[in-house]
C-alpha cells in the first residue's frame, strides 16, 4: 500500500468564519463543498492541484446532532477552545489504494462523492492530528473537479513528542510527499503553501 496527501483539514467555529479566514490568508476564493449528514458537519474546498485540496470544516448548525462523536475531535472541549482563538489547520488525510469497511472505517457520501475513511469511535485525531487519517475514494476525488486556484503545497511540517513513531507510521504507509517530521513538546501542524501572492504558512 502506498499513500499520498489527499487533503488538509482546517477547522473553524463556523463555516463562514473558516472560509473567510482561509480566503483572506491565501487571496483566492474557495468553492462550495457540501454536508456530511453522518457527522453533522459541512465544508468548503480549495484546489491544491490535481491530486490534493484543502478543506474548511465546521459543525453544521442546521443539521441534527449525530448519534456518535463528530470526526476530527470537533465535539471535544479542547478543540472548541482551540477554535475559539480562530480557525486552524488541525489535521491531514492521506489517500490509500484500499480500505476494508468496518466500525471505524465508515463508507460515506456527499453529493456525487463516495469514500471510505478511518474515523475512531471516539472521533479523536490520530497522534493529536499529526498522523494522517486514511481515505479511499470510491468515486473520483474532489481534487479532480475543483478549479485550479494556483495554490500548491510546498511542505507539510509535523511536530510531535514522538517523531520516531510518526516516521514509522508514514514508512509503513509508504507515504510519498513533502513532509517534514520534527520533535516538539506537543503536536504542531504547519502547511507551507505557494499562492499567486507568494508563500503562506498556515
Automatic annotation (TrEMBL):
Residue ranges constituting the Glyoxalase-like domain according to the UniProt record: 5-173
Transmembrane segments: none
InterPro entries in UniProt: Glyas_Bleomycin-R_OHBP_Dase, Glyoxalase-like_dom
One of the Pfam families matching this protein, by short name: Glyoxalase_3
Entry protein name: Glyoxalase
Amino acid at each position: 500500500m502506498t499513500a499520498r496527501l489527499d487533503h488538509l483539514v482546517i477547522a473553524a467555529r463556523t463555516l463562514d468564519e473558516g472560509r473567510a479566514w482561509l480566503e483572506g490568508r491565501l487571496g483566492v476564493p474557495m468553492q462550495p463543498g457540501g454536508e456530511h449528514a453522518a457527522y453533522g458537519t459541512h465544508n468548503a474546498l480549495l484546489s491544491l492541484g490535481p491530486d490534493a485540496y484543502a478543506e474548511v470544516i465546521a459543525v453544521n448548525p442546521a443539521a441534527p446532532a449525530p448519534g456518535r462523536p463528530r470526526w476530527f475531535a470537533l465535539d471535544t472541549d479542547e478543540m472548541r477552545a482551540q477554535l475559539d482563538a480562530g480557525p486552524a489547520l488541525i489535521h491531514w488525510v492521506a489517500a490509500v489504494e484500499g480500505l476494508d469497511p468496518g466500525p471505524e472505517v465508515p463508507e460515506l457520501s456527499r453529493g456525487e462523492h463516495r469514500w471510505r475513511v478511518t474515523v475512531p469511535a471516539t472521533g479523536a485525531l490520530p497522534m493529536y492530528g499529526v498522523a494522517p487519517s486514511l481515505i479511499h475514494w470510491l468515486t473520483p476525488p474532489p481534487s479532480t473537479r475543483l478549479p485550479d486556484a494556483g495554490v500548491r503545497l510546498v511542505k507539510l511540517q509535523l511536530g510531535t513528542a514522538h517523531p520516531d513513531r510518526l516516521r514509522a507510521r508514514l514508512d509503513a504507509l509508504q507515504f510519498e510527499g513533502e513532509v517534514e517530521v520534527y520533535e516538539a513538546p506537543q503536536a504542531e501542524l504547519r502547511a507551507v503553501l505557494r499562492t499567486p501572492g507568494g508563500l503562506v504558512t498556515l
